[in-house]
């Protein structure tokens, strides 16, 4: 069984990777509708706000793809500011994509997810890793070509695992990271190490973060997390360990506990514990575990 229709795994547009080398791409981009990105936010109200490329002269946007004959693209707000289109920016409302991702349509969510991830890579990758030469964008913004040695750099995706671990009693293991606000708990997650399988990473991360040994694991689904460029692979896992085995380092992870369904539902309802927003795969994993209990508020 896999998690279906995860908020940031919804795509209606064709990414059209072959079209990134279309000789007529610049002409099509000049007629595109454009997603504006600033950091982790996108231009939006209750829907995604799309700007006409005609309002952005001398600023080639990055190519996102097509849908029903319409070309879509993206730009970073700082690029718009540099060409002197401040009035356009002043008329836009920038909203945190974490907060609105579930409100958007499949088309809007897919466009925004791609735009944010691509913008994060472009903003952080200006120089060649081989010779430190300056990179020039091509292929609709999806390749960085070194102006000195010709090496090509592509957008990077960092794979992560995220897992809802259950104990023998069916309770879920949640932890609180030191960087989070008081009372916020979530499932365990972590980056894949070089040469590691996803399943090994699930067991290693849970053991490192909480001391809990995980046995069986089962894949649940994946979605992008473009903050800045992660791909989250979701798992369920099972352990024979109990609270007595929990061992957090007190530095990165300050607390970890097993929660029963009714207990967690009650704590969330009273505001004593906060769980992840519906945009995240973490919330989907928790909701899947809690499906037979009253809905978490």
How are the elements arranged and paired?
Layout: H1 25-29, E1 33-38, E2 41-43, E3 50-52, E4 62-67, E5 70-76, H2 77-82, H3 86-90, E6 94-96, H4 97-100, H5 106-124, E7 135-138, E8 143-146, E9 152-153, E10 158-166, E11 172-177, E12 188-191, H6 198-210, E13 217-225, E14 230-238, E15 253-259, H7 261-269, H8 281-289
Parallel strand pairs: 1-5, 10-14
Antiparallel strand pairs: 1-2, 1-3, 2-6, 4-5, 7-8, 8-9, 10-12, 11-15, 13-14
Outline of this structure?
With 297 residues, the protein is α+β, with helices and mostly antiparallel strands.
Task: Please characterize this protein's 3D structure.
With 297 residues, the protein is an alpha+beta fold. The chain has eight helices and 15 strands. The strands form four sheets. Strands 1, 2, 3, 4, 5 and 6 form a six-stranded mixed β-sheet that branches. A four-stranded mixed β-sheet has the order 12-10-14-13. Strands 7-8-9 form a three-stranded antiparallel β-sheet, with no helix packed on it. Strand 4 and strand 5 (70-76) form a beta hairpin. The radius of gyration is 21 Å and the shape is elongated. The two termini are 25 Å apart. The model has no long low-confidence stretch (mean pLDDT 95).
């Amino acid at each position: 069984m896999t998690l279906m229709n995860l908020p940031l795994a919804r795509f209606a547009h064709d990414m059209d990777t072959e079209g990134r080398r279309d000789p007529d791409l610049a002409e099509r981009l000049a007629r595109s509708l454009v997603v504006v990105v600033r950091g982790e936010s996108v231009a939006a109200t209750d829907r995604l706000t799309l700007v006409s490329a005609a309002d952005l002269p001398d600023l080639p946007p990055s190519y996102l793809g097509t849908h029903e004959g319409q070309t879509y693209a993206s730009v970073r707000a700082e690029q718009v500011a540099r060409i002197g289109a401040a009035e356009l920016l002043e008329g836009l409302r920038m909203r945190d994509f974490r907060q609105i991702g579930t409100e958007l349509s499949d088309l809007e969510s897919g466009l925004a997810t791609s735009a944010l991830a691509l913008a994060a890579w472009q903003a952080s990758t200006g120089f060649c890793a081989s010779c430190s030469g300056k990179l020039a964008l091509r292929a609709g913004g999806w390749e960085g070509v070194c102006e000195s040695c010709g090496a090509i750099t592509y957008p990077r995706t960092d794979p992560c695992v995220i897992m809802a671990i259950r104990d023998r009693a069916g309770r879920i293991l949640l932890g609180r990271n030191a960087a989070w606000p008081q009372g916020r708990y979530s499932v365990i997650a972590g980056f894949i190490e070089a040469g590691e399988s996803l399943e090994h990473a699930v067991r290693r991360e849970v053991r490192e973060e909480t001391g809990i040994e995980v046995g069986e694991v089962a894949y649940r689904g994946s979605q992008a997390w473009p903050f800045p460029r992660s791909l989250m692979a979701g798992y369920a896992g099972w352990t024979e360990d109990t609270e007595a085995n929990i061992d957090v380092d007190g530095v990165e992870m300050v607390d970890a506990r097993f929660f029963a369904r009714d207990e967690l539902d009650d704590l969330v309802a009273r505001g004593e514990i906060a769980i992840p927003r519906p945009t995240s795969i973490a919330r989907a994993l928790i909701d899947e575990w809690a499906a037979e209990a009253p809905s978490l508020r």
